[in-house]
Amino acid sequence: MKVVLQRVSEASVTVDNEVIGSIGKGYLLLLGVCEGDTKQRADKLMDKISKMRIFPDENDKINLSVADVDGEVLIVSQFTLYADIKKGNRPSFTNAGNPQLAEELYEYFIEIAKDKFKKVQHGSFGADMKVSLVNDGPFTILLDSEIWE
């Protein structure tokens, strides 16, 4: 699993000109699933995300978690995180998880996020989504569950 975590002051996801998820201050999480990913990997990744301290404290030191700032989370599926451009200029997505596995783990990721965070919104798996955000910082972190293997 890969996650692009962006600290945002606001973010939303739109499908067919309708906003289906919207948050204020918090995290936008773009989630990619590959073959071999499991619920255990999702658990480890979510645990790490929930404990990260990337919000400034009263001394402007990066020291607070999303929970500490009463933050929110928006989760969007993004199979293109597994794009392979080793050959040619057109990306291959053969490293992305099959749609059934990816959707199952995406839904699981949303459910475990609801246990960790005050407000969780999400996109629609497989839909053509438009994501809007105001990256706060900018602050972006790439996470890959394979680092714990």
Please name the CATH architecture: 3-Layer(bba) Sandwich
The whole-number mean of residue pLDDT values reads 94
Q: What's the total number of strands?
A: 8
What is the number of domains? 1
What does the overall shape look like? globular
Contiguous low-pLDDT stretches (5 residues minimum) are none
Reading off the top of the CATH hierarchy, the class is best stated as Alpha Beta
Percent helix among the residues?
10-25%
Distance between the termini: 12 Å
Question: Which class best fits the helix and strand makeup?
Answer: alpha/beta
Note the run of SSEs as H and E.
Answer: EEEHEEEHEE
Total DSSP helices: 2
Radius of gyration: 15 Å
What is the quaternary state of this protein? single chain
Strand content: 35-45%
Largest sheet: 6 strands, mixed
CATH homologous superfamily caption:
D-tyrosyl-tRNA(Tyr) deacylase
CATH topology: D-tyrosyl-trna(Tyr) Deacylase, Chain: A
Task: Give a nutshell description of this structure.
This protein is an alpha/beta fold. Helices cover 21% and strands 41% of the residues.
